[in-house]
Design brief:
single chain; alpha+beta; Double Stranded RNA Binding Domain; 2 domains; 4-stranded mixed beta sheet; elongated
Length: 132
């Protein structure tokens, strides 16, 4: 089974607040919606007028916006990715710390381990259950 074809969909917002959606690689394929989600649903319907199996293709969204706004969105996405990586690191480190405090030589109670780490005893229990 081969991979489905991908189509770029360009979304622009008009003066009245509607999202205009067009498929640059399919001449004449365009629609609109009050929301990006609605425009995406409708562009898939419009694409169905031009190609078979439009429901199975991959749509690659390109939301057009002023450069200043696009830059802020780009910075947010980068910050969100960094925060997600840090959260994952914190989770791994918390499990190791709980294991060292409650399961290691110290054999601290869950309450004492929670006090040392500044988390709840219930969270210590959860971390102990998922410790690697």
């Amino acid at each position: 089974m081969g991979r489905s074809k991908a189509y770029r969909v360009r979304y622009t917002r008009d003066e009245s607040g509607w999202w205009q959606a067009s498929v640059p690689d399919v001449q004449g394929c365009h629609t609109q919606g009050r929301t990006i989600e609605e425009a995406r649903r409708r562009v898939r319907e419009a694409l169905g007028l031009f190609i078979d199996n439009a429901g199975d293709v991959t749509l690659k969204d390109e939301v057009q916006m002023p450069k200043r706004v696009a830059d802020v969105v780009k910075r947010y996405r980068a910050a969100r990715q960094r925060a997600d990586r840090e959260q994952q690191y914190a989770s791994v480190t918390a499990r190791r710390a709980v294991k060292a405090l409650a399961g290691g030589r110290l054999h601290l109670s869950r309450r004492d381990a929670a006090e040392v780490l500044g988390i709840s005893a219930q969270r210590v229990q959860q971390l102990l259950e998922t410790a690697d």
